[in-house]
């Protein structure tokens, strides 16, 4: 459950670091060659610049891949934690019941019809809801979408801050630009420096760690349970 999420997140971070290490080495090679006689190295140096840009653009996609994976599995881990405790639907917080209803039922149902259908589905206390991965995240993750997801699951205290000029909104635009063929990888990689990417990478890691810490507390303290009726 939570351990599996942490392990897979480490795997994706390792993939990113492996390529990022090559990018750093390549940038050092470019700097060393740029201090030599440009007449001897101009063609080779330009080739290195192109490869460096391509690597940066690829790393942006890898970070986006990590974020979308992480948010999807964050939500699934919550539902796994609920299922593990065999918690009845009607013992969940109202906000979670609303989230499940939103995933499970058509959006155009009236409030009464929705209530009746939920009672039919969860009439047996042992029935728990576990969404599929396809039901959870549709892509296009930006700051607004991430905050919305966190707030829906009562993780309101998480800060989404960036020291880098790159943000989640920027990353979404980069991802869409590459995915839809609006820019090639070399062109897109020119938009930001390797240092910009490094700071952004660290910003994203900090956000993920903060969410994981809160998620562990949430599951251990069973914060998904509604307060008992007085």
Descriptive overview:
The structure is a single chain. This protein has 230 residues and is mainly alpha-helical. The protein is built from nine helices and no strands. The chain has helices at 2-34, 38-84, 94-104, 111-121, 133-136, 143-152, 168-179, 185-189, 194-220. Helix 1 (2-34) runs antiparallel to helix 9 (194-220) and helix 2 (38-84) packs across helix 7 (168-179). The longest helix has 47 residues, at 38-84. The chain is elongated and about 75 Å long. The model has no long low-confidence stretch (mean pLDDT 89).
Search tags:
single chain, 230 residues, mainly alpha, 9 helices, elongated
Give the overall silhouette.
Answer: elongated
Which spans of ≥5 residues are poorly predicted at pLDDT below 50?
A: none
- By secondary-structure content and strand pairing, the structural class works out as mainly alpha
**Helical segment tally?**
9
Portion of residues in beta strands equals: under 5%
Mean pLDDT, all residues? 89
Order of helices and strands: HHHHHHHHH
Profile the largest sheet.
none
What radius of gyration results from the CA coordinates?
22 Å
Q: What is the share of helical residues?
A: 55-70%
């Amino acid at each position: 459950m939570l351990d599996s999420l942490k392990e897979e997140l480490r795997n994706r971070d390792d993939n990113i670091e492996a390529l990022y290490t090559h990018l750093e080495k390549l940038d050092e090679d470019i700097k060393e060659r740029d201090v030599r006689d440009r007449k001897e190295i101009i063609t080779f140096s330009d080739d290195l610049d192109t490869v460096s840009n391509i690597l940066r653009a690829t790393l942006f996609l890898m970070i986006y891949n990590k974020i979308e994976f992480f948010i999807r599995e964050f939500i699934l881990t919550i539902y796994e934690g609920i299922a593990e405790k065999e918690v009845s639907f009607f013992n969940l917080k109202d906000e979670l019941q609303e989230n499940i209803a939103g995933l499970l039922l058509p959006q155009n149902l009236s409030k009464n019809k929705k209530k009746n259908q939920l009672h039919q589905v969860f009439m047996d206390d042992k029935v728990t809801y576990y969404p599929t991965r396809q039901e959870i995240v549709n892509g296009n993750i930006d700051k607004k979408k991430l905050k919305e997801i966190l707030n829906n699951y009562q993780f309101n205290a998480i800060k989404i801050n960036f020291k880098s000029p790159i943000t989640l909104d920027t990353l979404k635009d980069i991802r869409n630009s590459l995915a839809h063929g609006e820019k090639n990888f070399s062109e897109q990689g020119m938009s930001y420096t390797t240092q910009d990417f490094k700071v952004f990478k660290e910003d994203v890691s900090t956000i993920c760690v903060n969410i994981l810490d809160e998620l562990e507390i949430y599951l251990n303290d069973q914060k998904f349970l509604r307060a008992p009726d007085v």
